[in-house]
Each structure stands twice: as C-alpha cells, then as structure tokens.
Amino acid sequence: MADPKRVFDGDLLRADLFNPSGRRLFVSFRQRIAVDGAFSRPNPVRSFIAQDHAHLHIQSRFNDWFVNDETEALEHCLADALRGYGRRVAMGFSMGGYAALRLSRCLDLRHVMLVSPQVSIHPDVVPFDKRFRGSSGGFHFAQGDLGIHGRRQLAGTVIVDPFRALDMRNAHMIQTLFPRIGLARTACSGHPASRVLREAGQFPALQRMLFDPPVSSGAVTVLHRNARRHSAIYWKKLAELATLRKRADLARVAMSRATALGRSRG
User: Fold this and answer.
1) What is the CATH number of the domain that holds 152?
2) What average pLDDT does the structure give for the chain?
3) Percent of the chain with pLDDT over 70
4) Disulfide engineering: 99 pairs with which of 21, 29, 174, 260, CB 3.0-4.6 Å?
5) For residue 158, what are the domain limits?
6) What is the rounded average pLDDT of the residues 18-37?
C-alpha cells in the first residue's frame, strides 16, 4: 500500500488520504487516547479500500474533540480536496464519533456508524457529564455546536451500552439533532460499546455493514447478541450489574461464566 496523500497538515489537525482513486469515501477519526500530544502513524482500513473506497483518516494532536484554532481551515480544505467522491460514510468512536458529527457537513457525509459518541463536552451543553471536563477548557461553544455545523439529514447508527447512563443521554441528544440516526443497544459492552464485538472477533462484520448502507440498528444488536454468548467482558459486566441490582443468583451465574470464558481464552 502506497503512503497516503497528506490532505491537511497542521500543528493541531492532520488528514491523510489512502487510495485517492477510489470511487467512494470512507472516513475514520482518531479517538481519545490516554497520552496525547503527538500524531500517530495512520493505517489504511484495507477492507474498505478493497471495496473501492478512498480512506480519509483525520487526527487531532490533542484530546480537544477536534475543536481548535485549525478546525475552520480543515473544513475549507476538506470541502475542496474531496470533490468528486460518490457515497460517503464514516465510523468514529467516542471523541471520533463526535468528530464525525461535527465535520459531517464539510465532508458531505451520508451515513455514519458511531460508537459511544458525545454530543459535546461543553459544560453548558452537557452539565451532567463531567468525564471529559479536563479537555473542555478550549472547547468553544459555537464552534463545537452540532446544531450549527452538523449535517441534519445525516443518517446512521449510534452503538451504545444502555446501562451506561451518560452515554445514553448523549445518544438521545444526538438523535434530537439528527433524527435519521438510530440506536443500537449493545448491553453490558461498556465504553466504547463495541468491546464485546471486538472480543468475539465480530468487528470486521460490523465494519462490513457500512459497505452498503443504511445500517440496520437491529442488525447490529443481533450481531452483539450472538457475540455476547462467548464474551467474558459481557458476562463480567452482567455480574457487576446484577450485583448492583441485588440479583445475587444472576451475579453468581454470570461471574462463573465470565471466569470460565477467561480461562478458556488463557
């Protein structure tokens, strides 16, 4: 695979394009990382390239939710650089899920698959969600407003663990702004809500759903339901939930199942 074409090269934001001759466009975003401050080496998603997609990967150097002094310049650059592509889809996790929504208009996205995304990190928008407050100091209210910058006609699916209350509140707020986005509830999967699917080796199947959108939220839920049977993550989280709800019998069975699965994988 040839090196990507650098579409935008800033101090804070970077965008690289693999297989620029593809007829369709797939966009991915770097998610929030534990230690920020440097760009990562981008890698192509070969399954999309094999399906005649160009692959654009967008990174933010810091965990700033892609809202900074270079955001506007990035938007103008992408709008010009990506002319001519047909169907445009994107996938994003957490911070990357927010970025897909925030940049959906300039990217002219038609369909997205978002895993545990935030609607915002601004305290005036999500006063109930303080998880990422440490990253919100430079987050400009208007510049980060999805109602202003997002493409309202955008369709897609938000994958979310219904037992993660903060993630669910963000998901419902996203649905208010983007009425064509549905919810796929993947219970006891945590954050991000694709962990059970990854553990079961079903993540490629999840990606393939974007080859021919729209993605059915129900199909994602069925994929998760089949994967959870053999997922130690699922059974451990179910045991924790059952304990909180004082379901001792269920907690005991679930933890036993989690332990057995953990041993089999070891």
Assistant:
1) 3.40.50.1820
2) 95
3) 99
4) 29
5) 5-215
6) 96
Q: Is residue 79 part of a domain?
A: yes
pTM over 0.85: yes
Average pLDDT over residues 204-228: 95
| Pair 123, 253 in one domain | no
The pLDDT value recorded for residue 24 is: 97
How many folded domains does the chain comprise? Answer: 2
19: left (phi over 0), alpha (psi -120 to 50) or beta: left
Query: Of 88, 75, 98, 97, nearest to 145 (Cα)?
Result: 98
The stretch 200-206 carries a mean pLDDT of 95
Does residue 52 lie within any of the structural domains? yes
| Confidence tier at 263 by pLDDT (50, 70, 90) | confident
Spatial contact of 108 and 88, defined as CB atoms under 8 Å apart: yes
C-alpha distances (whole Å) from 243 to each of 78, 126, 222 are 49, 29, 26
Residue 220 CA to residue 65 CA, distance in Å, equals: 26
Separation between Cα atoms, residue 113 and residue 225, nearest integer Å = 18
